[in-house]
Specification:
single chain, 536 residues, alpha/beta, 11-stranded mixed sheet
Length: 536
């Protein structure tokens, strides 16, 4: 009986999904069990851990979820039962599975069943941030070669549509796709190159979830109520409160929501009559629905995937917050912790890309908001466990905020994951400042995570250091490597130095790295108030 019902109802649900309808609306009108778009053909489930599967049905409905391997692929079948609550929501947790074979999920309710085919078990990563994470393969280095060779059927891709809203979303329009030259072209380049490296190294399926949004501010990715009562965010939230009072913006949003509700009803009616649905109303392009409003992206593009079984997150963002870099010291770790708390999967790995070099080079040392943002990113390493930073101070482009070399960016992220999560014995962290001492008018700086030892590129002399005395006036300094983990810094014009900075500029001229080619992390030894110290 289930098979007969399934064949007819699946066609209807597929048509409704194409029309972009919310599954909860369908469930209420048809009494059918449903699942969000995250659970669909070609999906990848995270190996070696329990994976939640959830959806919607009628209140009190019995739900059975079965997972069984496709014929000839091996694996142990499992079955789980639950009952929906008063809100019609349900969830089960699949037992851990290893990365082998092809699986089928069957989700059965009282009146219908959903069959999800070609399910793989492997490693699942979320690829998030702003435009440099969203940047597609077709806009990166060697797009023709990269797309021609993107034939990896065990790498699966899904992209979350850009929805900015204060209303928590449970679902989205999208589907898992196999990695092909066609599907990879507009997918996150950093995400794809990262996933490809893991796939080729680990030889397991890879699932990549891309929810990046160009130009997004970090506060948009955080649950809004977390900003309440914190003085550091009061100016920011006050500005948004004033913006939100704009009656024209409010009316535009109200009209849009009304039109959207009407469209959903008309689309259901049209599909049931075998007619084409009307065109979806266009979302207004205003500040209330953009990628900067606090909580907008948390609700619109993050919440629909929260809870899905993942290994971790890779993140590339910060450009939009550079003018408030001191605030980012608190905001960025708060965002990461918010995600971890909501996900309920412990301190999953969270690896980010430090801002690249950008804008014109300057001849003399100056204060820099981008340097302060990089510092805020680095400080997060000591605030939260299971984190990592890919330093790319050598990969930027002066007049392009979107450097095209996404391959090396992804490799540096992959090094972090391969070493810290998959126990590969490889150098994975950039050298980082450890300590300093003053001796005979010189400052001796010691570094940690040096790999095979400190080195330079392009020229043998270390470049990029500045030095200052108590007057806080920085000048270019001479530097030399005196040990595998030590650099001596000095200047004839500063006889009593107290502080050193390295690569402290928007676009610094700097050349220190380890012998494996990972650049020295930009740093400063002072804590003097910077350019953005009072920008909130």
């Amino acid at each position: 009986m289930i098979k007969m019902i399934k064949n007819s109802t699946q066609q209807l649900f597929s048509a409704l999904a194409i029309a972009g309808l919310v599954f909860s609306v369908i469930s209420e009108s048809q009494g059918a069990v449903s699942v969000p778009a995250l659970f669909g053909n070609h999906m990848v489930l995270q190996r070696d851990q329990k994976n939640p599967v959830w959806g919607q049905a009628l209140p009190g409905e019995k739900i059975t979820v079965r997972a069984y391997s496709a014929p000839g692929t091996g694996g142990s079948d499992q079955s789980h039962e639950t009952q929906t609550g008063a809100d019609g929501k349900w969830m089960v947790h699949l037992d851990p599975m290893v990365a082998n074979g092809e699986w089928i999920l069957e989700i059965e309710g009282n009146n219908n069943a959903i069959v999800i085919k070609d399910v793989l078990i492997g490693e699942v990563w979320v690829c998030s941030g702003q435009s440099n994470m969203q940047w597609g393969v077709n806009a990166s280095n060697d797009p023709d070669l990269e797309t021609l060779t993107a034939k990896f059927p065990r790498i699966r891709l899904i992209t979350i549509p850009q929805v900015g809203t204060q209303v928590p979303q449970d679902d989205f329009e999208g589907q898992w796709e196999l990695c092909t030259p066609q599907t990879v072209a507009n997918f996150s380049a950093v995400g794809y190159f990262f996933g490809r490296q893991l796939h080729q190294t680990l030889d397991v399926p890879i699932g990549l979830i891309d929810n990046a949004w160009g130009g997004s501010s970090a506060e948009a990715w955080v649950r809004r109520d977390l900003f309440a009562g914190k003085d550091i965010y009061k100016p920011l939230m006050d500005r948004w409160t004033e913006t939100e009072k704009n009656p024209e913006l409010q009316k535009a949003m109200s009209d849009y929501e009304t039109n959207l509700d009407a469209w959903k009803r008309l689309s259901i009616e049209a599909r049931l009559k075998g007619q084409n649905p009307p065109s979806r109303p266009r979302r207004p392009g205003n500040q209330l629905t953009n990628q900067h409003r606090p909580g907008n992206l948390y609700n619109g593009v993050l919440r629909p995937i929260i809870g899905y079984g993942i290994r971790g997150v890779i993140w590339y963002q910060g450009e939009s917050n550079a003018g408030r870099a001191y605030q980012y010291r608190d905001l960025f770790p708060m965002m990461i912790q918010n995600w971890r708390d909501e996900w309920g999967q412990g301190n999953f790995p969270f690896y980010w890309v430090q801002l690249a070099d950008y804008q014109d080079e300057v001849s003399e040392p100056v204060e820099s908001d981008w340097a302060e943002l990089r510092e805020a990113q680095t400080l997060t390493l000591s605030k939260l466990p299971n984190t990592g930073e890919a330093v790319i101070i050598d990969l930027g482009e002066a007049h392009d905020i979107h450097p095209k070399n996404k391959q090396d960016v992804a490799k540096r992220l992959a090094r972090l994951a391969l070493a810290q999560d998959y126990r590969m014995d490889i150098v994975h962290r950039s050298p980082i400042y450890q300590s300093m001492k003053v001796e005979n008018g010189k400052i001796i700086v010691k570094f940690d995570h040096i790999g095979g030892g400190l080195d330079t590129f392009d020229v043998r002399t270390p470049i990029g250091f500045t030095i200052a005395g108590e007057d806080r006036k920085f000048v270019h300094a001479s530097a030399k490597i005196t040990a595998p983990d030590t650099i001596e810094v000095s200047s004839e014009s500063v006889t009593a130095p107290v502080a050193v900075r390295y690569a402290w500029a928007n676009n610094p001229v700097a050349n220190v790295q380890n012998k494996e080619g990972l650049p020295l992390t930009p740093f400063r030894t002072d804590s003097w108030p910077g350019k953005t110290a009072h920008s909130f």
